[in-house]
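Pipeline run #58 for the internal structure catalog. This entry was flagged by the ingest filter as a single-chain record with no existing model, so it goes straight to prediction. Upstream metadata was stripped on purpose; only the residue string is passed forward. Reviewer on rotation: M.T. Logging verbosity set to normal.
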Amino acid sequence: MKIGVLALQGDFREHIQVLRRLGVEACEVRLPADMDGLDGLIMPGGESTTIGKLAVQYDLVEPIRKMIAEKKPVWGTCAGMIILARDIGGLDQPLIGVMDIVVQRNAFGRQVDSFEAELSVPALASVTPPGKSPEPFTAVFIRAPVIRAVGPGVEVLATLDDGTIVAARQGTLLATAFHPELTDDLRWHQYFLTQVALPPAPRNGQDT
């Protein structure tokens, strides 16, 4: 398996380090040629407007959309989640715009308002040893967006205590408002690799 990390701006290096810790081949993506042979893509946190403009400048928008159309997995964290969303409240910035979610940018204020929160994430049971309940995930929020609404095909994976949606999945698309790559907890990357990138085989030869 080979996973690319969009390396135009933001904390792409941290994602690559986590992937390599998990024994996965990982590479930086800056140009369309860098996407050749990829099995999946991570779009990291950073400044979503800058990342979007650079993606347009380097002709990456359509190759990413093509990858998604081919049902290859793509995960957006923080800024990456904004770029994946179809609706960001009418703000004018370049988007991939394929995930059926409504996202609010900078929902918690400035960088000085960054915080951590313990999240209950039942989906992480799939990467938890058998017989053990998944521990809460300590999520790092930095100038974070939130998901204000989801379409009918979107599964909510995690919320804050007040019900605010901070993680969701739509088929092979994964979005988190926080930064799993900034912690020592590898479960979100394991979830992406084993459940999104390589979903369980259909039972009895039937499609799921």
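catalog note: Residues 37 and 207 are 25 Å apart (CA to CA).
catalog note: The chain is about 20% helix and 25% strand.
status: ready for reviewer M.T.
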